[in-house]
Amino acid sequence: MKITRITAYQVDLPLHEGRYSWSGGKSVDVFDSTVVRIETDEGIVGHGEVCPLGPAYLPSYAAGARTGIAAIAPDLIGADPTQLDVVNALMDRALKGHPYAKSPIDMACWDILGQVSGLPVSTLLGGTFGDDFVLYRAISQRPPQEMVDNVATYRDQGYRRFQLKVGGDPDTDIERIRAVGTTMNTGEKLIADANTGWLMHEAARVVRAVDDVDVYIEQPCLSYDECLSIRRRTSHPFVMDETIDGLDALMRGHADDAMDVVNIKISKFGGLTKARQARDLCASLGIAMTIEDSWGGDITTAAISHLAHSTPTELLFTATDFNSYVTVSIADGAPQRDNGRMASSNQPGLGITPIPGVLGEPVFTTSI
Ligand code: MG
Q1: Of 13, 18, 52, 261, which sits most exposed with the smallest number of CB within 10 A?
Q2: Which of 263, 287, 286 is nearest to 275 (CA)?
Q3: Residues 316, 345: Cα–Cα separation, whole Å
Q4: Which 8-state DSSP code applies to residue 50?
Q5: What is d(CA 309, CA 335) in angstroms, rounded to the nearest whole number?
Q6: Does residue 168 contact residue 197 with C-beta atoms inside 8 Å?
Q7: Are 191 and 215 contacting, i.e. CB atoms less than 8 angstroms apart?
Q8: Whole-angstrom Cα distance, residue 129 to residue 183?
């Protein structure tokens, strides 16, 4: 089988809540997502998606994703999309770094491999654990009482894990964590995600001020070393996210006992192939995981669902259903949240079919 054509599309994904806000006053109103379509000489077509959380979250941005895909695509024409490690080697040879640009291509090749083999991607990733898996809800940064109210709203929808977006003014963040913390019920979990937003002295104050609250602390500071310093000053369970972007960082984090949970975003690692490698390493080391991406719509959510559902249940801390946050559906067959939980499709590949017309005109096409 050979890749004959690679096409990229741009899709706007507005939010049901209108705006998503996180640390340092950063926010996004409409997500700029990119869908990749890979065609083959045997008529099988695969799809992938990448959607950075704006240009100021990770070192990635939407136009960069599309430029990167366009740079890589000529080197993949004629390659066998079912040979995932070979495809990844070709991408790494064509473009150094830029894992987010490679992620939707890798995702689309997994979609093709699943269709060729007649198996869902979750089976190819190791098989599904249980009937479904647990989701968290990200609670956009707002005044403390609004965040309390939003947690209540999403609890009514079935969520039992809530990730508060903090990393703002430390005194207000202490209020946010304490106010929501008092509303938690048995069996629920609360995560305070600062998204790199605190300086060390601020993070040190916050973790001490909420010492009696049952809360996980996620990525308090910008650098790995700053986070490790805070990790060593607190007894709260600790999540590393933005600074863990590959196996080197993951192995260093394990050696330093830097975290209890790691956040594996598919595009941060460069696609399902590399995210699975990190997932399997974490599983062997006993490190729990949040499995998600930097945002996206139906196709990203489908990819997340296959990786999350094929992760041992006790090691999957949470996953995300991004397609329920946005107002536009781009594909049929995508998994849908049910009472705070989700299951991957049992159809071959990712199990999705883009809805005709939603993707619009291609941004570019590369073909033989
Ligand atoms: Mg995070």
Answers
A1: 18
A2: 263
A3: 18
A4: E
A5: 11
A6: yes
A7: yes
A8: 31
Divide the 368 residues of the chain into consecutive groups of 10 and give the mean pLDDT of each group.
98 97 95 98 98 95 98 98 98 98 98 98 98 98 98 98 98 98 98 98 98 98 98 98 97 98 98 98 98 98 98 98 97 98 98 95 95
pLDDT at 356: 85
Give how far Cα 209 sits from Cα of 173, 175, 198, 215, 295, Å. Answer: 10, 10, 14, 12, 31
Q: Which residues are catalytic?
A: 165, 265
Ligand 1: centre distance to CA 334 (Å): 23
**β-strand pairing of 238-240 with 261-265:** parallel
What is the length of the chain? 368
- What residue spans define the domains of the chain? 3-118+356-367, 123-353
Which CATH class for the 3-118+356-367 domain? alpha beta
Q: Residue 195 Cα, ligand 1 centroid: separation in angstroms?
A: 6
**Which residue type, as a one-letter code, is found at position 357?**
G
pLDDT score, position 368: 85
92 in helix, strand or coil? Answer: helix
Distance between Cα 138 and ligand 1 center (Å): 9
The model's pTM: 0.98
Which tokens is 341 given? 């939980």
Cα 316 to averaged position of ligand 1 atoms, centre (Å): 15
Could you tell me the strand order of the sheet in which 45-50 lies? 45-50, 30-40, 3-14, 364-367
pLDDT, tens digit (0-9, with 9 covering 90-100), for 190-208: 999 999 999 999 999 999 9
Please tell me the distance between residue 355's alpha carbon and the centre of ligand 1 in angstroms.
30
CATH architecture of the domain with residue range 123-353: Alpha-Beta Barrel (3.20)
How far is residue 241's CA from residue 224's CA, in Å, rounded to a whole number? 10
Q: Is the dihedral of CA 107, 350, 52, 222 positive or negative?
A: negative
CB 309 within 8 A of CB 318: no
- Which neighbouring-strand residues pair with 264? 291
